[in-house]
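REQUEST FORM: STRUCTURE PREDICTION
Request ID: SP-0412
Submitted by: Lab K.M.
Chain count: 1
Length (residues): 475
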Amino acid sequence: MTPLLPFLAPEKARFLPVPDDLLDAFYPAKLCLFEWSDYWFEWRGATHLRVGAEWVEPFAPHLFRVRWENALGASAIQPFRGEEAIDAPLAVEILSPKFPMPRAHLGFFRALLDELFERAAHLPFGFEGETSRGTQTSHLPPTPLWTRLFLEQNGARLGEALRHFLAQPCRDLASEHIWLDASHATQFDGAALSATAREAWVWQRHNARLLPSRVAQNRAFEPLDTPENRFAAAFARRVGRAIEPLDGFVEIEGLCAAIAARFPLWSEEIAVSPALERRRVSRELLGLWRLWNGAGAPLFTRFERAARLRDIAQLYEFWTFFALADAIGRALGQTPRLQTSSDEARGLAPLSRARFGSGTLVFNGPAPSYSTPLRPDFLWLENGVPTLAFDAKFRLENGDNEAESRGRGADLHKMHAYRDALGVRGALAIYPGEVSRFFDPNGGKSALSLGELLNGTAQGVGLWALRPDATKTVS
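STATUS: Completed
RESULT:
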């Protein structure tokens, strides 16, 4: 890479170096640039640039204008001559004007990511498919990020269940026939004599009499090869392999290794059968297996991709879905159930729904506009009809300067468009700010009340300040 960035006018370019103590967090980027700012690059010999996943054509020979819009987090710039790269990618971190310093940007990102996973894992959601209730099992292995989250939230439960299983594996009583010398036999009941009488090979003539050389005996034993033990051993092996690259789960890793050493490798397959419901420990392990490998895991693949890129805007949209579902549940006093299709792509896909007793929150679903197509981020449906619309606006400001006021006004105009075109009674722009504002159709301003919007006593448009707790520490 060239020793200095090929800015045309470096003294006018807005950029910040990544502080030394944050280099690991922002790796491989060592430089922060800013969204909505123009950057001019002069790269001799380059015919076009690849910026992230986009291609940028030259403004003039070897001169390129690069601008990131609606794109935050990790990015890269690489010059090409035709189809050949002429330099290594330049890794950069794109900051938002809302968090213009690397430390503030990273702090919000970490708080957002932490609360996103915490909400998704701990909301009282039940996962269901389109035509069946209950937990669905994913056919793809859980991602490392979901595995870490699962263990952080459920490690104590899993550790207790594995310790219990290791101390008291399932030992169903079974029996089998064995043959002992007649002099050593102790059982001469009807079953033993009947079994002996049927076997000609044990009878021998002695002093003109037929006597048994061996007598059938019924031996009771407790085999380890049971459905419960097969399931628990296979589960422990999978968890052990999944946490090998992760730090901080030494006890769980040790328990999994002890189970793998004690029990034979009957099968790598996880077989779920009614027998697993017979004992408390197997029921507990089955519940944990379903949580780890169930419909919750697919939600986190898109989260993980956005997290790797530190795409705050995308993560904020995901976070808002869960925060909004949580807020609606508290306002209504109802428990949401998340509906996902069993065959949908592994992520929070369009048309994911949080169902309540009195309505449904739809993520990124189509809206029946009477004119131009509109698609709010979230719709609240009552009897299948949209009544409220919500948009997650990470970049929306709520300040007093002219630029911020224009941004606020533009998004309020969009909320008015939602109310008019979709026929909803309320539309809110949700942003990570400090102040919520609500405007009713009579021109009045009031405090925002989600409960009044849901029960129909309030109508209008507004701004809803909703943000994660940025004071939380994240490992």
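NOTES: The chain has eleven helices and 23 strands.
Reviewed by: T.R.
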